[in-house]
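Key result, reporting period 2: structure in, sequence out.
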């Protein structure tokens, strides 16, 4: 369970940093009380990075299925997907704040919009597939190889 707590702690630090960055960056550019995508990064990291990681840790420890290769790969994918998606929200949010700022005359280029959307979509796909694979790993039965080796050793004298 300590591994999940450490992951959640890292995401907590990132989430708090995103919240502080959102507040200060928005104030610096005069975009206060205006909806921007930058405000979503804080919540994204706290919910997907902290709350869900702790829930995944609790369920995994309760089921005793944290040693499988599928689960380990899916959890790494989930962590990478959460981090990448959150960082793309920050990138999109910075452009959002700059484009809505009365102090700066900025228009996000269409190529940048497409690139941000594409990379964000890839990270969302990684996040979604990993989340599904975590559930699949939870539902899989223990491997039959482990059962067969236990059966052979039960009848043998050592």
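The corresponding designed sequence is given below.
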């Amino acid at each position: 369970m300590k591994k999940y707590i450490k992951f959640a702690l890292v995401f907590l630090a990132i989430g708090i940093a995103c919240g502080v960055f959102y507040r200060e960056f928005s104030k610096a550019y005069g975009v206060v009380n205006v909806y921007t995508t930058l405000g979503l990064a804080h919540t994204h990291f706290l919910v997907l990075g902290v709350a869900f990681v702790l829930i995944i840790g609790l369920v995994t420890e309760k089921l005793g299925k944290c040693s499988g290769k599928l689960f380990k790969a899916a959890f790494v994918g989930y962590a990478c997907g959460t981090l990448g998606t959150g960082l793309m929200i920050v990138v999109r949010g910075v452009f959002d704040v700059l484009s809505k700022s009365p102090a700066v005359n900025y228009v996000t280029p269409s190529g940048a919009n497409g690139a941000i959307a594409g990379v964000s979509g890839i990270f969302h796909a990684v996040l979604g597939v990993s989340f599904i694979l975590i559930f699949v790993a939870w539902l899989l039965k223990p491997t039959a190889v482990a059962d067969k080796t236990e059966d052979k050793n039960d009848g043998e004298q050592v």
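The mean pLDDT is 88. Helices lie at 2-28, 38-63, 69-100, 110-139, 144-155. This case is discussed further under Risks and Mitigation.
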